[in-house]
Write a structure and sequence with these properties.
20 helices, 16% strand, 15 strands, alpha/beta
Length: 516
């Protein structure tokens, strides 16, 4: 039996090492980072190990060699010099009022001033910060290390509140700007966060930051690679497989399907979500560990606000400039969704510099689509899982009438001013429903010009459906026959249903379905 203690939720490197928790050695990359540059920025989704990275750097710059025994950096570093460290953690506060950011900056500045002294003429946050850096450098004889964890949390929590976001932006812009003006007193700086707010944002003055978020050599600095799993957890994979009653290869495939698939640049290896992976090994079962620790409500609000066509999400295309920066007055929901970890890079067109995005893995895809259901349909959060279960049972038993009646209840109470919005709403609801059914059956889904073609296969039945947003159910069925959609299934032994369905503008719902 494995005796590994998994560091779930542990973000402090010193306590992790002292209490003998399992640690995947990232210190060779940390050493490379420290020795080849000075100012860095890294964006990764939440729960990806950013805080642990910051804490590891802090222990290293405090010269705590004893914590690194047996790790790569122990052999690489010869000097182990102790530097003054200013560590700002913006994770703690809930940023819902202007003073919430002021309070946390004040608290950190006061703590540093106790160590390095204060100067009455330094009245603003940025002047005090600059003064602290200068005095710390003078008093210790060493340049200062600055570590900022979740630099963007105030900005992220103020999405949708432009006035508050503007206040936060102005405060942080001046504060972070000190990193540039105090260059001579700084040894190293790393800012981490979920997003990169670009353009007129906190970064516009900080052009000396090296953004390593999409750099291939740093892809493994947070998260876990396939190779790291096999180098560190080989015995545990066998134990996990035995506990689940499956083969070693089947378990590896399940881990990959559920938790792998993060690509932070093109042509890079896939990265596993560390939070879900370690939980799965600890409890020897699969679950949506990462998804359930955060709710992407603000992302869904963005999607709805911008009338986003959800079907596009699974194969969205964009360029590096869009991916890399979120305009704080953002009108495009995709960069925020990508940087938050709900979408990842799936492909790259080198000629045009275009990235193709998609869901990283099953945990995120199923979690996200399930999460959307109550926001787009007339079904609440508690009922949603049961509704999908019933849908699947109905199509598996050939009970299409119950299926469509249940689908009708999803559309009740929808009010839209514009016909195009109404059409998009129908499409989005159908996309969510059939995507969720598709996790349990086979679904092929196509949309074009006011109609949706759908093929749904179960063990016993094949359904060919044509949804018409304008026109009659009879015309929809006629289309299935005219276009000979059933031709590929003529030799199939399963029972075939051809179903034409139409929507009514008047009732704003499914009006009728005819079956052949």
């Amino acid at each position: 039996m494995s005796n590994k203690i998994y560091p779930i939720g542990i973000q402090n490197f010193e306590s992790l090492r002292q209490d003998d928790y399992f640690y995947i050695d990232k210190t060779a990359l940390i050493y490379q980072m420290v020795k080849t540059g000075r100012y860095y920025f890294l964006s990764r989704p939440r729960r990806f190990g950013k805080s642990l990275l910051i804490s590891t750097l802090e222990a290293y710059f405090r010269g705590k060699k004893e914590l690194f025994m047996g790790l790569a950096i122990e052999k690489l570093e010869k000097d182990w010099i102790k530097y003054p460290i200013l560590h700002l953690d913006l994770n703690i506060e809930k940023y819902d009022a202007p003073e919430s950011l002021d309070n946390i900056l004040e608290k950190s500045l006061v703590a540093w001033e106790k160590l390095y002294g204060a100067e009455p003429s330094e009245r603003s946050f940025s002047l005090r910060f600059a003064g602290i850096i200068e005095r710390a450098c003078e008093q210790t004889g060493q340049r200062v290390v600055i570590l900022v964890d979740e630099y963007d949390k105030p900005m992220l929590q103020a999405i949708g509140n432009e006035e508050l976001q503007k206040q936060f932006r102005n405060t942080l812009k001046a504060f972070y700007g000190v990193l540039k003006t105090m260059d001579g007193c700084i040894k190293f700086a790393l800012l981490t966060g979920v997003t990169k707010f670009g353009k007129v944002s906190v970064f516009s003055d900080l052009n000396n930051l090296d953004d390593i978020s999409m750099r291939n050599q740093y892809i493994e600095i947070c998260g876990v690679s396939e190779q790291e799993i096999h180098s560190n957890l080989e015995n545990e994979i066998h134990e996990f497989a035995a506990a689940r009653g499956v083969t070693y290869d089947k378990l590896c495939a399940e881990l990959r399907e559920n938790y792998d698939g993060y690509h932070f640049t093109h042509n890079s290896i896939g990265i596993y979500n560390p939070f879900s992976l370690l939980n799965a090994f600890k409890y020897k079962e699969f679950s949506s560990y990462w998804f359930e620790t955060g709710t992407p409500t603000y992302l869904v609000k963005l999607l709805k606000k911008h009338h986003y066509d959800l079907e596009r999400m699974a194969h969205e295309e964009t360029d590096a400039q869009v991916l890399n920066s979120i305009d704080s007055e953002s009108t495009n929901p995709i960069p925020v969704i990508y940087q938050s970890g709900y979408l990842t890079i799936k492909g790259y067109d080198e000629r045009f510099g275009m990235y193709r995005l998609g869901f990283p893995n099953r945990e995120v895809e199923e979690g996200f689509i399930r999460f959307l259901l109550p926001f787009y349909t007339n079904v609440n959060k508690v009922e949603a899982p049961f509704a999908i279960q019933k849908f699947v049972h109905e199509v598996e038993s050939g009970d299409y009438d119950s299926f469509f009646r249940r689908l009708q209840s999803f559309f009740a109470d929808t009010t839209y001013e514009v016909i195009r919005e109404q059409e998009l709403h129908y499409e989005n609801v159908l996309f969510i429903v059939f995507k969720l059914i598709g996790f349990y059956t086979q679904v092929e889904y196509k949309t074009s010009n006011g109609r949706i073609d759908l093929v749904l296969k179960t063990d016993k039945f094949i359904y060919i459906m044509e949804f018409k947003l304008e026109g009659t159910a009879e015309e929809a069925l006629q289309q299935i026959n005219d276009k000979r959609y059933a031709l590929p299934f003529e030799m199939d032994e399963r029972k075939l249903f051809k179903i034409g369905i139409n929507f009514s503008e008047k009732t704003r719902n499914i009006e009728k379905w005819v079956v052949e």
